[in-house]
Design a protein that fits this description.
This protein has 418 residues and is an alpha/beta fold. The protein has a single domain (3-171, 236-395), classed as 3-Layer(aba) Sandwich (Rossmann fold), CATH 3.40.50. Helix content is 45%, strand content 11%. It contains 17 helices and eight strands. It has helices spanning 16-27, 44-48, 57-62, 98-101, 105-117, 133-136, 154-175, 189-203, 213-224, 228-238, 252-270, 287-294, 315-327, 341-346, 354-366, 373-390, 404-411; strands spanning 3-8, 33-37, 71-73, 87-90, 122-126, 143-149, 241-249, 276-284. Strands 3-4-2-5-1-6-7-8 form an eight-stranded mixed β-sheet, with helices on both faces. Helix 11 (252-270) links the parallel strand 7 and strand 8 (276-284). The longest helix has 22 residues, at 154-175. Bound molecules: adenosine-5'-diphosphate (ADP) and magnesium ion (MG). Adenosine-5'-diphosphate is lined by residues 9, 12-18, 44, 247-248, 283, 285-286, 289-290, 293. The site of adenosine-5'-diphosphate (ADP) has 17 residues, from helix 1, strand 7 and helix 12.
Length: 418
């Protein structure tokens, strides 16, 4: 059950690194986990972990060391009870180095190849903010990885929505690229052009006629009637899963109004009403989290002081009890019922998933008093593990990072090729 999971956000300062570090530490209680700091301009992972880094990405890129040699671990000083012996991380260079901050294509493929070889069950990638190919190339094709946003940064919430939009369009562009076998199934080349022109219009935010992919499907249906593209596109949209974590949670009302609602509304308006949205959980806003970062001993590595800060051992039992007691969420995700493209086109007003999001938030909040901050991470890790174990591999994260050729292979089934 090997899985590479990205942690990203459109903008910085939302707690990506804080989340990635503590999430990776939590997962490492279950299986070997490696955190890779890909925010190579700020090197923030090593700044929140007080350990001696002997090799980092500098050595990988400039000294040609295998990535495996660039792993650092937490020693007995930070991890007195040896609970996190399965955790390791790859630090970014100590100082920003232009060619490592802005990776060339060749350097990026070298790194992607090396990440695929890392010996771990879970590999967490702490990405930097932005939307260029040095970020998108690390993200999965059929889901968003984990997006982090907070009620404090409205612009960052929209930027997280833009990641989803970019990923979906990236996938559709490859699917409908010139020469793509999807188009060599005997259809008119003018259809090919039409689909790409409509995609241009949807992607262009200043083009108001086609605000999202639902409108695009409607237009395509009107222009061509029944056609093979409809199904291809609506299946790409409907199977795309968006996973998010709300950081600096500060109460249901504010978190909902300032983060969840704008996020969901933005996705519905400018992408589609048919995406699967999964709220993985939240992390409270708590000075202990910030202080722990400043001490370079993340909250998960802080000694347990109060009796109610019960130790995480045995972690699996605790995770399991959390799931049933905290949320009352179903332990098994419902199977995804895919709508036919007829329904998808007919149902363009869409069923609003907002109400459901509010319910989830409310049930999370009710049990807040019983929780320690670190339980937030345990809860999210537990949900992630459940998805990794019980759902198809492309639902959450990805088993390996794809090279451009593999990307095409993955998207265009062999039987559809000319
Ligand atoms: N849940 C939280 N409660 C309090 N402070 C937080 C929390 N999450 C992050 N912080 C603080 O917010 C700042 C930004 O967090 P960081 O993880 O570096 O964000 P990013 O990686 O997205 O830039 C840091 O000072 C961090 O200590
Ligand atoms: Mg960071």
């Amino acid at each position: 059950m090997r899985r590479i999971i990205t942690v990203s956000s459109g903008k910085g300062g939302v707690g990506k690194t804080t989340f990635a570090v503590n999430f990776a530490l939590t997962l490492s209680r279950v299986a070997p986990t490696i955190l890779v700091d890909l925010d190579t301009g700020t090197s923030s992972v090593r700044n929140t972990l007080d350990v001696n880094v002997s090799h980092d990405l500098y050595h990988f890129f400039r000294r040609d060391r295998p990535l495996f040699d660039c792993l650092s671990t937490v020693d007995g000083r930070l991890d007195r009870d040896g609970l996190f012996s399965q955790f390791a991380f790859v630090a970014a260079p100590r100082h920003a180095i232009e060619e490592i901050t802005n990776l060339s294509d060749a350097a990026r493929w070298k790194l992607i190849h090396a990440i695929n070889q890392l010996p771990a069950s879970f590999i967490i990638l702490d990405l930097r903010a932005g939307l260029d190919s040095s970020i998108l190339d690390f993200l999965p094709l059929s889901n968003s990885g984990i997006l982090v946003f907070t009620p404090h940064h409205p612009a960052a919430t929209i930027a997280a929505g833009d990641i989803v939009k970019s990923l979906l369009f990236r996938k559709l562009r490859i699917l409908f690229a010139e020469g793509s076998p999807v188009f060599s199934t005997g259809d008119d080349r003018s259809h090919h052009r039409l689909v790409n022109e409509l995609l241009d219009q949807v992607e262009d935010v200043y083009e108001e006629r086609l605000p999202n992919l639902d409108a695009f499907l409607r237009d395509l249906y009107q222009a061509l009637g029944e056609n093979p593209y409809l199904e291809a596109i609506s299946s790409v949209v409907q199977t795309f899963a968006v996973h998010f974590v709300l950081n600096m949670f500060n109460g249901v009302e504010e978190s909902y109004e300032n983060a969840i609602r704008p996020f969901v509304e933005y996705l519905m308006q400018s992408v589609s009403t048919h995406l699967q949205l999964v709220n993985l959980g939240w992390i409270v806003e708590d000075q202990r989290i910030h202080r722990a970062n400043c001490e370079r001993r993340p909250i998960l590595l802080q000694p347990l002081t109060r009796p109610e800060d019960r130790p995480l051992d045995p972690v699996l039992a605790e995770l399991a009890s959390l799931e049933t007691s905290v949320l009352g969420l179903p332990t098994r995700s419902q199977p995804v019922v895919r709508k036919s493209h007829h329904d998808a086109v007919a149902d363009l007003t869409g069923e609003v998933p907002l109400e459901q999001q509010l319910q989830i938030l409310n049930s999370m909040y009710r049990s807040r008093g019983a929780l320690h901050v670190r339980d937030n991470f345990a809860y999210i890790a537990h949900r992630a593990l459940h998805m990794i174990r019980d759902l198809p591999a492309d639902t959450f994260g990805q088993p390996r990072l794809l090279t451009p050729l593999e990307l095409f292979d993955a998207l265009v089934p062999h039987e559809r090729r000319g």
